[in-house]
Design a protein that fits this description.
Blueprint: E1 3-4, E2 6-9, H1 11-15, H2 25-38, E3 42-46, H3 52-64, E4 69-75, H4 78-88, E5 94-101, H5 104-111, H6 115-130, E6 136-141, H7 148-161, E7 165-170, H8 177-190, E8 198-203, H9 210-219, E9 224-227, H10 241-250, E10 257-258, H11 266-277, H12 298-306, H13 334-343, H14 350-366, H15 372-383, E11 390-398, E12 406-413, E13 417-424, H16 428-440, E14 445-453, E15 462-470, E16 473-481, H17 484-505
Bound molecules: 3-methyl-2-oxobutanoic acid and zinc ion (ZN).
Length: 508
């Protein structure tokens, strides 16, 4: 008999609030649908009081995602709770997640409140939540640095007021596994009514101990783990979903716990998040990194060929990674094409597949091999596509050791007029972007820029991802080309087209 661990995913809240990871509503919706397929138990969709955009995204997720509990975060203020409830009230199973800091450091320097005041506030706001729902989570922010007996008192008060889950965060990633396990056991043993609530852990990864701390917490009695895909989150991130789930799965002989996660959706979820945010996973990242199942050393390869278990503790297939998959090319059929897209996290309609398959065939005619990143660019350009306001007609760039980088660009605007301009920059990409910005009259901020070699060799296809922001609206853009300057221009124009679409939708 194994104990079930509730997987509470906070990729769209704690993950999304970290630099470089903000997503627009459509992007959040894509990810939320994937998290539903992954079968997380609770999906924390955002912090509705933070902004109009957050409210709108949480509301849309709450309305559309029916198979998973949807949580919204709130501080201990009626205004925050009203916003949280306003956004999730139509969810099939809504949860209000309310938090206040409990450590003396936070009380003294941040809240300027004493311990009794924090307890009063906790009780008042949990009771306020209760008029909306019985599904209330209370978090003691900076719990791991809170006086133990006081922490138990706060949890006891929160549970008496109506909290059904109490969460113990290691907010600053300061705890050491043995110490954190002791703390969870102490809370279990010294909070009189703890039996009436689920005890949860929420560990940050500042010392690289998020997973270890969460596992110690589970061993000590926690039955909910708060996690994110790829471990994204504030600073060094949160405990990663894939590490917790696959540790419990792989070491079930030692750890008697189960989760409801469909492990085959782990890799597609990781990939989708990386694609949406444009931030790739580090190659040596446990479970989902590009090297996680790659055996380079001859002695390892020899062992794996003789028997997989010599050096492989998990099957790649368990996380939905098909290492035996065929390289796609011009002879690949629609079925293989659809399967590969599915493995990358895209569950597309038959119509979208048809459209994309034609584009894929065109691309395959030009190139021998089509890699996953090519497909992601195709999806970004064709499916997540919006009507093109701008289209690249012509680009000429001069750059070198003895010249000021200069770009001449021609853009077709709204399918009608063609505008041309030339400009300079500190490098060829800067010159190209300055010129495009001048022609389009846009003032977007470049929040992120990354280039990946999509295939091997110096003739590799370069894939560029940008993240742009204008008037509070953010989006990504993608482009691919063997010439990285052209790929960069395509990504920028793709991002500008998305920004135009989003600004129009929001009336900005
Ligand atoms: O890290 C933290 O303390 C949090 C809380 C809001 C749960 O994210
Ligand atoms: Zn956190």
């Amino acid at each position: 008999m194994t104990d079930k661990i509730i997987i509470f995913d906070t990729t769209l809240r704690d993950g999304e609030q970290s630099p470089g990871y903000s997503m627009n509503t459509e992007e959040k919706m894509y990810l939320a649908s994937q998290l539903e397929k992954l079968r997380v138990d609770v999906l924390e969709a955002g912090f509705p009081a933070a902004s109009e955009g957050d409210f709108e995204a949480v509301q849309m997720i709450a309305k559309r995602i029916r198979g998973v509990e949807v949580a919204a975060l709130a501080r201990t203020s009626k205004k925050d709770i009203d916003a949280a409830w306003g956004a999730i009230k139509e969810a099939a199973n809504p949860r209000i997640h309310v938090f206040i800091a409990t450590s003396d450091i936070h009380l003294k320097h941040k809240l300027k409140m004493d311990r009794d005041q924090v307890i009063d506030k906790t009780v008042e706001t949990v009771k306020y939540c209760k008029q909306f729902t019985d599904n209330i989570e209370f978090s003691a922010e900076d719990g791991s640095r809170t006086d133990r007996d006081y922490l138990c008192k706060v949890f006891d008060a929160a549970i008496t007021a109506g909290a059904t889950t109490v969460n113990l965060p290691d907010t600053v990633g300061y705890a050491i596994p043995g110490e954190f396990g002791d703390l969870v056991a102490y809370v279990k043993g010294h909070t009189p009514n703890i039996g009436k609530a689920i005890l949860s852990v929420h560990c940050h990864n500042d010392l690289g101990l998020g997973t270890a701390n969460s596992l110690e917490g589970i061993n000590a009695g926690a039955r909910q783990a708060e996690v994110t895909i790829n471990g994204i989150g504030e600073r060094a991130g949160n405990t990663s979903l894939e590490e917790i789930v696959m540790t419990l799965h792989t070491r079930r002989n030692y750890l008697p716990y189960s989760t409801s996660i469909n492990t085959k959706e782990i890799y597609p979820s990781s990939r989708l998040l990386a694609m949406i945010t444009g931030i790739s996973v580090q190659p040596n990242k446990a479970i989902v990194g590009a090297n996680a199942f790659a055996h380079e050393a001859g002695i390892h390869q020899d062992g794996v060929l003789k028997h997989k278990t010599t050096y492989e503790i998990m099957e790649p297939d368990t996380i939905g990674l098909d290492t035996s998959r065929l390289i796609l090319g011009k002879h690949s059929g629609r079925h293989a094409f659809r399967d590969r897209l599915r493995g990358l996290g895209y569950d597309l309609s038959e119509g979208d597949i048809d459209h994309l398959f034609k584009k894929f065939k065109d691309l395959a005619d030009k190139r021998k091999q089509i890699v996953d990143e090519d497909l992601e660019v195709l999806v970004a350009e064709e499916i997540l596509r919006v009507a093109d306001t701008y289209r690249l007609k012509y680009l000429n760039v001069i750059s070198g050791t003895t010249t000021v980088p200069a770009a001449t660009v021609q853009l077709e605007i709204k399918g009608k007029k063609v505008e041309q301009n030339a400009g300079f920059g500190v490098g060829p990409i800067d010159a190209t972007y300055n010129t495009i910005a001048r022609i389009t009259g846009t003032k977007s901020k470049l929040l992120g820029f990354s280039i990946d070699a999509l295939t091997g060799g110096t003739d590799a296809q370069g894939g560029v991802t940008v993240r742009l922001e204008e008037k509070g609206v953010q989006t990504m853009g993608k482009g691919a080309d063997p010439d990285i300057i052209i790929a960069s221009a395509k990504a920028y124009i793709n991002g500008l087209n998305r920004l135009e679409h989003l600004k129009r939708k929001r009336g900005r």
